[in-house]
Description:
Elements: E1 2-8, E2 11-19, E3 26-34, E4 48-51, H1 62-65, E5 77-80, H2 86-91, H3 102-115, E6 121-124, H4 128-133, E7 138-144, H5 163-170, E8 174-175, H6 178-185, H7 189-192, H8 196-205, E9 207-211, E10 217-221, H9 225-233, H10 238-245, E11 253-258, H11 266-275, E12 279-284, H12 291-294, H13 296-311, H14 317-323
Parallel strand pairs: 4-5, 4-6, 6-7, 7-11, 11-12
Antiparallel strand pairs: 1-2, 2-3, 3-5, 8-10, 9-10
Protein name: AB hydrolase-1 domain-containing protein
Pfam family, one: Abhydrolase_6
Domain AB hydrolase-1: 48-301
Amino acid sequence: MSASPTVRSGLNVVRHIVPASTPSFKLACNTYRRTTPLPSPTKATPPIIFAHANGFHKEIWEPVISRLSHPWANSEMYAFDCRNQGDSAVLNKDILEKHFDWYSYAHDILQVVDTFDLKKAVGVGHSFLAEMMRPGTFSAIVAIDPTNFPKEIYMSASIEDNPMAQLTLKRRDTWKSREECKANMLQKKFFKAWHPEALDLYIEHGMLDVVNEDGSTGITLKCPKYQEATTFACVGTGLYDSFEGMSEIQIPIHIVSGEDSDINFEELVKMKLARCKYGSLKVLKGVGHLLSLEKPQETADQISGFLDRALESPVELEQLKARL
């Protein structure tokens, strides 16, 4: 495991390269600690693992991480790039596969847990499958507009038939500079809704500097378009299994959804809540599926507030259920 430190946005960031659950793959992982810790909590806070959505990268969580409140802001935090996205895509560029399996993402989450010997972490993002595969890995899960579905909601596993995959393949993926990239993105409604910090981090850390055949320089997406598209299309059984398995999870789950989400319509998000044995739900007004990129403060408040309720004292699960 190699590491290099830097300081960004009040956070001490240490970059690591760790093995993935598949030996030939590597994962780019960041650890975060506040540069100026808040007053020490009365008890130790758990580590927090952030798992990003398709098409993004670990640094996209930094606006949320930097806004967590006491005592959770003192936690050691981890965010890693999915094996075919962000810096991991660059590390694995010669062995990227044509298909994506969501179980690989879950196995890689568990690999990060094992590499850093994390005990009873909090999972933020895509954590259901990992907890199902190894119960007791997490002490709580915060699901940010989760992308898991009942089997009756059919999603094509063909790139040709999947609308999100097709949109991804049509997107622009090269620019002359990051300045041109930002100017172009700010003309689009999709990106204009993002918090400025999130957009800047996406452009800074989600792009790769390249030299073109004519000798000119430019940037391109670290995650190749085809990899993002195949992740949309290759649902496999993982996202269906994680929906069915929500009822088996024996820890608190807090679902945060966007009122305008194009993934979780009202009936679906209520179905997900109903499957949680110890669940709670907050629907944020005026935001869509990418709510953590649009409203990082509100997202951080939801994480901190939930952990205040769920982990502030050691209570039995039946008591916790009543409190949530």
